[in-house]
Amino acid sequence: MLINADLHIHSCFSMASSKDMVVDNIAPQAKLKGLQLMGTGDGFHLKWLNMIEENTTYSGDGIYSKKDCDFILTAEVEAKNRIHHLFILPNIEIAREISERLASKNKDVDGRPRVEMDGCEIKDLAKDYGCLFGPAHAFTPWTGMYKIHDSVYDCYNGKPDFLELGLSADSNMADRVKELQNIPFLTNSDAHSPWPHRLGREFNQIEMEDISFTSLKNGIKNNGIKANYGLIANLGKYHMTACSKCYQLMDPVFAKRNKMKCDCGGIIKKGVDFRISEIADWNKPHHPDHRPPYIYLMPLAEIISMVYDKGVTTKTVQNIWKTLIKEFNNEIDISIKISLSDIDAIDEKVAIAIEAFRNKSIYISPGGGGKYGQISLDDNLKNEVKVKKRKQLTLDNFKN
Question: Between the N and C ends of the chain, which has fewer C-beta atoms within 10 Å?
Fold first, then answer.
């Protein structure tokens, strides 16, 4: 079976996370998104583990179920040099054991524990307990593995089970690096809130015999990842080199010459795009035979927001989103599968925008320095959206 899985999120116990990141909110929102398997995130936080046990039913082999959504234990750890690593765990008992072993001062406060372990120690800990592990958002300038290391093998003294690309990178970028040819790529949302423009904004489609830790492990290790779905990398908030204070995009050579300091006084952060160019072996991607397609996905609420020029969380946008979901069941299908004519019957303007996204005719202002990129329609499509009016009434509309 093909399973849509988002394996990296955070709970209500993580810094900067919404208090709404609880099982009772995540499960129904995941279903509306079109996801069948969710990572729990924060799997080393004991209070979160208690909440998972209290609010789910254990289905066996590492799966904790809530209505139509299955959860698997995952955790992110901030280790030496502020590098983030992602664990996928066999069950809660092992999560508790590892948590006890982690020497972390913030473990009881923050869902993401900080430890003074290097990559080799992280690898050994994961292997001791039969976990899957790999670098989280590997290219990100603040906390990605490649911000310090020029090689993933230097970090772990061996091969990780996977590499998480992060929102600012995609397979076309990462497959310019030769050493990654035999490493599976994961794309996950890293969501800090349960709402559909965050949850599942990146996910993996994985061939699994059943929904279980064993099957997920086999799928990741044995070429079972059939597609990576994610944002257009330009939209990632660390895609381009930019100031982290005023967000002005910078030429990387100029930034280095100015010792990564902006005229405004802010710190310039090296973009993922430039960092990959520094470590790349090829100018163009060399996709290995096992590499699945990378399919670009935009949160539906953001497309509606663009069309109506309203905030993502406004009533206007949310009501249109709910109407489309009620008609077509889940967001992923609306974004990539449902026919444009069917969407047009519900909302002509949104249909135009989805068609533009599918045809790659949406303009993107790149993100950088901690600010997400922005999408917009070209002038012709903007005019087409503007002239779309409610269908003209005829005498037939007034017949009894």
Answer: C
